[in-house]
Design brief:
Number of strands: 0
Distance between the termini: 15 Å
Strand content: under 5%
Shape: globular
Oligomer: single chain
Number of helices: 12
Radius of gyration: 17 Å
Order of helices and strands: HHHHHHHHHHHH
Number of domains: 2
Helix content: 55-70%
Structural class: mainly alpha
Protein backbone atom coordinates (compact mmCIF):
# COMPACT_ATOMS: atom_id res chain seq x y z
CA UNK A 1 0.00 0.00 0.00
CA UNK A 2 1.43 3.37 -0.96
CA UNK A 3 2.25 5.99 1.62
CA UNK A 4 -0.77 8.30 1.94
CA UNK A 5 1.27 11.50 1.88
CA UNK A 6 3.34 10.42 -1.11
CA UNK A 7 0.30 9.32 -3.06
CA UNK A 8 -1.55 12.56 -2.26
CA UNK A 9 1.52 14.46 -3.45
CA UNK A 10 1.61 12.50 -6.69
CA UNK A 11 -2.06 13.23 -7.32
CA UNK A 12 -1.57 16.95 -6.64
CA UNK A 13 1.50 17.08 -8.88
CA UNK A 14 -0.28 15.64 -11.89
CA UNK A 15 -3.58 17.41 -11.33
CA UNK A 16 -1.93 20.84 -11.21
CA UNK A 17 0.49 20.23 -14.07
CA UNK A 18 -1.15 18.05 -16.68
CA UNK A 19 -4.19 19.08 -18.70
CA UNK A 20 -5.06 15.69 -20.20
CA UNK A 21 -5.60 12.11 -19.03
CA UNK A 22 -4.86 12.98 -15.42
CA UNK A 23 -6.42 9.91 -13.84
CA UNK A 24 -4.71 7.54 -16.26
CA UNK A 25 -1.34 9.22 -15.66
CA UNK A 26 -1.82 8.98 -11.89
CA UNK A 27 -2.74 5.31 -12.20
CA UNK A 28 0.33 4.55 -14.32
CA UNK A 29 2.67 6.41 -12.00
CA UNK A 30 1.18 4.74 -8.95
CA UNK A 31 2.07 1.38 -10.48
CA UNK A 32 5.62 2.54 -11.22
CA UNK A 33 6.41 4.31 -7.95
CA UNK A 34 4.81 1.93 -5.49
CA UNK A 35 5.73 -1.47 -6.92
CA UNK A 36 7.49 -2.74 -3.81
CA UNK A 37 7.97 -6.15 -5.44
CA UNK A 38 10.81 -4.63 -7.45
CA UNK A 39 14.18 -3.43 -6.15
CA UNK A 40 14.56 0.33 -5.91
CA UNK A 41 16.89 0.64 -8.89
CA UNK A 42 14.46 -1.32 -11.07
CA UNK A 43 11.69 1.07 -10.11
CA UNK A 44 13.99 3.98 -10.92
CA UNK A 45 14.64 2.50 -14.36
CA UNK A 46 10.92 2.02 -14.89
CA UNK A 47 10.33 5.64 -13.96
CA UNK A 48 12.96 6.71 -16.51
CA UNK A 49 11.22 4.62 -19.15
CA UNK A 50 7.84 6.09 -18.24
CA UNK A 51 9.20 9.63 -18.55
CA UNK A 52 10.72 8.76 -21.92
CA UNK A 53 7.26 7.66 -23.05
CA UNK A 54 5.71 10.89 -21.72
CA UNK A 55 8.12 13.66 -22.80
CA UNK A 56 5.59 16.40 -22.03
CA UNK A 57 6.04 15.54 -18.35
CA UNK A 58 9.85 15.46 -18.41
CA UNK A 59 9.95 18.63 -16.29
CA UNK A 60 8.50 16.58 -13.42
CA UNK A 61 11.10 13.78 -13.62
CA UNK A 62 13.22 14.94 -10.67
CA UNK A 63 10.26 15.45 -8.33
CA UNK A 64 8.80 12.10 -9.32
CA UNK A 65 12.13 10.53 -8.40
CA UNK A 66 11.99 12.38 -5.06
CA UNK A 67 8.58 10.84 -4.38
CA UNK A 68 9.92 7.41 -5.30
CA UNK A 69 12.81 7.89 -2.90
CA UNK A 70 10.79 9.28 0.00
CA UNK A 71 8.36 6.38 -0.32
CA UNK A 72 11.28 3.94 -0.30
CA UNK A 73 12.79 5.57 2.78
CA UNK A 74 9.58 6.06 4.75
CA UNK A 75 7.54 2.98 3.95
CA UNK A 76 10.13 0.26 3.51
CA UNK A 77 11.76 -0.11 6.88
CA UNK A 78 15.54 0.04 6.92
CA UNK A 79 17.78 -0.51 9.90
CA UNK A 80 20.40 2.23 10.44
CA UNK A 81 23.19 -0.05 9.23
CA UNK A 82 21.44 -0.36 5.86
CA UNK A 83 22.76 3.08 4.94
CA UNK A 84 26.31 1.78 5.21
CA UNK A 85 25.55 -1.28 3.10
CA UNK A 86 26.71 -2.04 -0.46
CA UNK A 87 23.05 -2.00 -1.58
CA UNK A 88 22.53 1.59 -0.41
CA UNK A 89 25.94 2.66 -1.77
CA UNK A 90 24.91 1.30 -5.16
CA UNK A 91 21.65 3.26 -5.06
CA UNK A 92 23.54 6.45 -4.19
CA UNK A 93 26.16 5.89 -6.90
CA UNK A 94 23.62 5.16 -9.63
CA UNK A 95 21.21 7.99 -8.80
CA UNK A 96 23.60 10.90 -8.19
CA UNK A 97 22.13 12.82 -11.13
CA UNK A 98 18.50 12.23 -10.14
CA UNK A 99 16.09 14.07 -7.88
CA UNK A 100 15.87 17.62 -6.62
CA UNK A 101 16.26 19.68 -3.47
CA UNK A 102 12.59 18.98 -2.80
CA UNK A 103 13.63 15.61 -1.39
CA UNK A 104 15.06 17.49 1.59
CA UNK A 105 11.71 19.20 2.07
CA UNK A 106 9.75 15.95 1.88
CA UNK A 107 12.10 14.32 4.40
CA UNK A 108 11.85 17.34 6.68
CA UNK A 109 8.06 17.25 6.58
CA UNK A 110 8.11 13.53 7.37
CA UNK A 111 10.42 14.19 10.30
CA UNK A 112 8.24 17.06 11.52
CA UNK A 113 5.17 14.80 11.45
CA UNK A 114 6.98 12.07 13.35
CA UNK A 115 8.01 14.57 16.03
CA UNK A 116 4.70 16.46 16.02
CA UNK A 117 6.43 19.71 15.06
CA UNK A 118 4.74 22.37 12.94
CA UNK A 119 6.88 23.06 9.85
CA UNK A 120 8.72 26.38 9.83
CA UNK A 121 11.33 27.66 7.43
CA UNK A 122 13.79 28.49 10.19
CA UNK A 123 13.38 25.02 11.68
CA UNK A 124 13.96 23.45 8.26
CA UNK A 125 17.15 25.44 7.73
CA UNK A 126 18.71 25.41 11.18
CA UNK A 127 17.47 22.22 12.84
CA UNK A 128 17.06 19.89 9.86
CA UNK A 129 19.66 21.09 7.35
CA UNK A 130 21.97 22.44 10.09
CA UNK A 131 23.08 25.29 7.86
CA UNK A 132 24.76 27.02 10.80
CA UNK A 133 27.20 24.17 11.37
CA UNK A 134 30.64 24.30 9.75
CA UNK A 135 30.36 20.81 8.29
CA UNK A 136 27.13 21.67 6.45
CA UNK A 137 28.35 24.60 4.38
CA UNK A 138 27.23 22.95 1.14
CA UNK A 139 23.67 23.20 2.45
CA UNK A 140 24.30 26.82 3.44
CA UNK A 141 25.44 27.64 -0.10
CA UNK A 142 22.40 25.97 -1.66
CA UNK A 143 19.89 27.66 0.64
CA UNK A 144 21.75 30.96 1.11
CA UNK A 145 19.03 32.92 -0.69
CA UNK A 146 16.54 31.84 1.99
CA UNK A 147 18.96 32.35 4.86
CA UNK A 148 20.15 35.89 4.11
CA UNK A 149 16.72 37.20 3.10
CA UNK A 150 15.23 37.05 6.58
CA UNK A 151 11.96 38.70 5.55
CA UNK A 152 11.32 36.45 2.57
CA UNK A 153 8.17 34.96 4.13
CA UNK A 154 6.63 38.44 4.27
CA UNK A 155 7.32 39.12 0.58
CA UNK A 156 4.75 39.14 -2.19
CA UNK A 157 5.24 37.34 -5.49
CA UNK A 158 7.15 40.22 -7.06
CA UNK A 159 9.52 40.38 -4.11
CA UNK A 160 10.04 36.62 -4.12
CA UNK A 161 10.84 36.67 -7.83
CA UNK A 162 13.40 39.42 -7.23
CA UNK A 163 15.18 37.17 -4.75
CA UNK A 164 14.79 34.19 -7.07
CA UNK A 165 16.96 36.01 -9.62
CA UNK A 166 19.83 35.94 -7.12
CA UNK A 167 19.67 32.17 -6.59
CA UNK A 168 22.73 30.53 -8.11
CA UNK A 169 21.76 28.29 -11.01
CA UNK A 170 24.08 25.49 -9.89
CA UNK A 171 22.27 25.08 -6.55
CA UNK A 172 19.30 23.31 -8.13
CA UNK A 173 16.97 25.54 -6.13
CA UNK A 174 16.13 28.31 -8.57
CA UNK A 175 13.15 26.70 -10.31
CA UNK A 176 11.72 25.57 -6.95
CA UNK A 177 12.31 28.81 -5.09
CA UNK A 178 8.91 30.45 -5.55
CA UNK A 179 6.74 27.43 -4.62
CA UNK A 180 9.05 26.63 -1.71
CA UNK A 181 8.66 30.12 -0.24
CA UNK A 182 4.91 30.09 -0.80
CA UNK A 183 4.67 26.68 0.86
CA UNK A 184 6.31 27.94 4.04
CA UNK A 185 4.13 31.06 3.95
CA UNK A 186 1.13 28.73 3.93
CA UNK A 187 2.55 26.31 6.51
CA UNK A 188 3.31 29.15 8.92
CA UNK A 189 -0.14 30.73 8.48
CA UNK A 190 1.14 33.83 6.68
CA UNK A 191 -0.84 33.13 3.52
CA UNK A 192 -4.01 31.20 2.76
CA UNK A 193 -4.31 28.46 0.19
CA UNK A 194 -5.11 29.89 -3.22
CA UNK A 195 -3.64 33.36 -2.66
CA UNK A 196 -0.74 32.66 -5.00
CA UNK A 197 -2.34 31.06 -8.05
CA UNK A 198 -2.19 34.14 -10.22
CA UNK A 199 1.35 34.54 -11.45
CA UNK A 200 2.56 30.97 -11.01
CA UNK A 201 3.31 28.79 -14.02
CA UNK A 202 2.03 25.22 -14.15
CA UNK A 203 5.29 23.77 -12.82
CA UNK A 204 5.39 26.13 -9.83
CA UNK A 205 1.73 25.50 -9.06
CA UNK A 206 2.28 21.73 -9.25
CA UNK A 207 5.27 21.86 -6.89
CA UNK A 208 3.43 24.10 -4.42
CA UNK A 209 0.37 21.86 -4.27
CA UNK A 210 2.54 18.76 -4.05
CA UNK A 211 4.21 20.10 -0.92
CA UNK A 212 0.89 21.13 0.60
CA UNK A 213 -0.59 17.69 -0.14
CA UNK A 214 2.38 15.97 1.47
CA UNK A 215 2.03 18.13 4.57
CA UNK A 216 -1.71 17.64 4.91
CA UNK A 217 -1.89 13.86 4.42
Amino acid sequence: MENTAVHASLVALIQHYSADNKQELIHQLTDVLFDTNLPFLERSKNLDAWIADHPTLEELADVLFDLLMVHFLSEEMHEPEYFDSPAWNEIEDKTLDKGSEMLNVFLYLSDAKDNEVEPHLDDFLTEFLLVGEDEFQDEYRIYESLIVNEDILDADLAGIRDVQKTVKSDTGLQEYFVPLVFFFQYAEGIADKGEWETGLDSFESAILHTLIAFQEN
